[in-house]
Amino acid sequence: MPDPNREPDSNPPSDPTPGASAKAGPSFDGLRVAALESRRRDEFSRMIEKFGGTAFVSPSMREMPIERNKDVIDFAYRVMTGEVGAVIFLTGVGFKHFLTSVEKHVDKQRLLDSLSDIVTIARGPKPVVAMREVGLQPTFRAPEPNTWREVLQLIDQQVPVANMTVGLQEYGVTNHSLIAGLEARGARVVNVRVYQWDFPEDTVPLRQNIEAMCNGERDLLLFTSAHQAVNMLRMAKELGCEEQLRSSLNRMVVASIGPTTTEMLQHLNLPVDIEATPNKMGHLVQAAAEKCYRILKAKRFAISSFSMNNASIPDPNPGPQKLDRLGASLSNSPFMQACYRQPSDVTPIWLMRQAGRYMAEYRAVRDKVSFLELCKNPTLCAEVMVTAVEKLGVDAAIIFSDLLPILEPMGFQLEFTQGDGPVIHNPLRQTSDLDRVQVLSNMDALSFVPETVRQTRAALPDRIPVIGFAGSPFTLASYMIEGGSSRNYVHTKSLMYSDPEAWKILMDKLVESISMYLNSQIVAGAQVVQLFDSWAGCLSPNDYRIHILPHMHRLLESIIPNVPVINFATGNPMLVSSLRGDARTVVGLDWRVPLDVGWDMVGSDRAVQGNLDPTVLFSNIEAIREHAQYVLAQAAGRPGHIFNLGHGILPGTPVDHVIALVDMVHEMTDRRKA
């Protein structure tokens, strides 16, 4: 297989040892970093070089005041005559241009006095500074992260704008979402356009940078402003290479300075792999240096693998408004719509362990083969899952497999014993044992897993997404160390507490192996993957945050971007807020936390999955309906809810009750009847 980490037709620096950069601190390690910063070009170049990158920073725009701006002068008079009740200043430069545009035509001090008498809202710190320079204190400042959503949230809390004329200082491109939000609240919006963005006077560096990106001669692109993206695409269009540029960006790491810039990139259908927090230039460079190798490796692994298989590459930026690019069938999948928090005709439902011992068809297969033999037989695995999907009528299919086969090529002797479950015959018992833990570098020994994905995908209707899965690092480490399941995880916690460096080595090996395992399933046809942390409930929130969360972040960054990842941990509701991961994460909730409480802990900007108690399915149909209605009521019809159990279907569960649950969830949430 071609090296997925590097462009085949260029000469980038050699691929580092996985984890090497992280051990030495954030580093670009010679990667070629493009940026489009104008005002602080030299400073930005120095920052990139400080973190070991080769900087290619080309100015992309300049602010141009609108000459003879009659509309702005008219607006200033309306402010002074009391017609305007509030003004929203979105940028500091915009406020300054506003004063410059009108000071020859109106009394400047009278205008400032009039502004001090009405409500003024500053979107962020820069308009606050600009206003203070002329003696104005804004009435309100929108909170971080200073997007239009926070402006509307502030207005809802502090400023009744119904029937009020509200001035909105724009900055180059009209924010239709903000205007629509203001008008929905009853405001009369007056756009105040005071400047526009143009190309820099010397466009040669920008042209050269765009051409280099098109030719695969850049590894990262950093955006410090939303309008840099607009001008970049304008210039690419002039050069006749817009589509080539878009294709090249899918092979690069794209980083955004903050939510406003991210929204613009998504609006332009450009990928966003990293977003700085807080949204400062230095944090942007540091975050990109810390994460770039993992993301770059995942993206190029996907592209190289799809190219070798002559398969179409999934949309690298499906985003909320772009489900149509997933294909006509999947774009109408309620499950995929929920993953992206989009409205759907019904609430989707699938069930963990939906193919299992409670089904006669599964037991008939198991009578012929052992569990491990079944896991290693793709044809049988596909058969049992397709049978379950067809019988239950669920909206998604998870591949039939197990968490533990990945441990065998990593150096562990695995056996599934009758009655006792999985047993590791050579567990880790001392630090020196870490030397025999092998990192999964290819899928040769596990080829039956992606083949199971392929056969399952081929046997199902196109509208049914396939879910791949893996165990999370802590759960797999617990099996490695304990040798099986455990009550107290004494050996695991002892290593974690007493030898943090050894623990980190083990986590690094697991992150590298799990990402390879999941990425191979995605390449084989999985539209979504799920991480199971079955034993994380034994950890306190503080232990999870210190010893697990950093490694989970690195794992998510190592999975092919924009493929939804369901992050499921069971046993401790206090861990829920730590499971929110990155923007494509769906958080699985077990039954120990009410769904609405869990969703609040996760945050409304994430989808959730869950969370009926599996034992409810042993009760009668009326009780099942009552409990299902309760879960659905907590979800309140919000986009982004995937109905599931709070854990897997238990052995002995009546099959008819499972079918009834699926039917009643579909029936109770059918929005086509409205």
Report the span from N to C terminus.
52 Å
Q: Helix/strand/pairing class, anyone?
A: alpha/beta
By CATH, the architecture of the largest domain is named Alpha-Beta Barrel
Instruction: Figure out the total of helices.
Output: 26
Q: What is the top-level CATH class of the largest domain?
A: Alpha Beta
Strand order in space, largest sheet: 13-16-17-18-19-20-21
Share of residues in strands: 5-15%
Spans of at least 5 consecutive residues whose pLDDT stays below 50 are 1-23, 316-328
List the helices and strands and how they pair.
Elements: H1 20-23, E1 32-35, H2 41-50, E2 54-57, E3 62-65, H3 70-80, E4 86-89, H4 92-102, H5 108-117, E5 119-122, H6 125-132, E6 140-141, H7 148-158, E7 165-170, H8 176-184, E8 188-193, E9 195-198, H9 204-214, E10 220-223, H10 226-239, H11 242-249, E11 253-256, H12 259-267, E12 274-275, H13 281-308, H14 328-331, H15 334-339, H16 360-366, H17 371-375, H18 378-392, E13 397-398, E14 414-417, E15 421-424, H19 448-459, E16 466-471, H20 473-482, H21 490-498, H22 500-524, E17 528-533, H23 541-558, E18 565-569, E19 585-588, H24 595-602, E20 607-609, H25 621-635, E21 641-642, H26 655-668
Parallel strand pairs: 1-2, 1-10, 4-5, 4-7, 5-6, 7-8, 10-11, 11-12, 13-16, 16-17, 17-18, 18-19, 19-20, 20-21
Antiparallel strand pairs: 3-9, 14-15
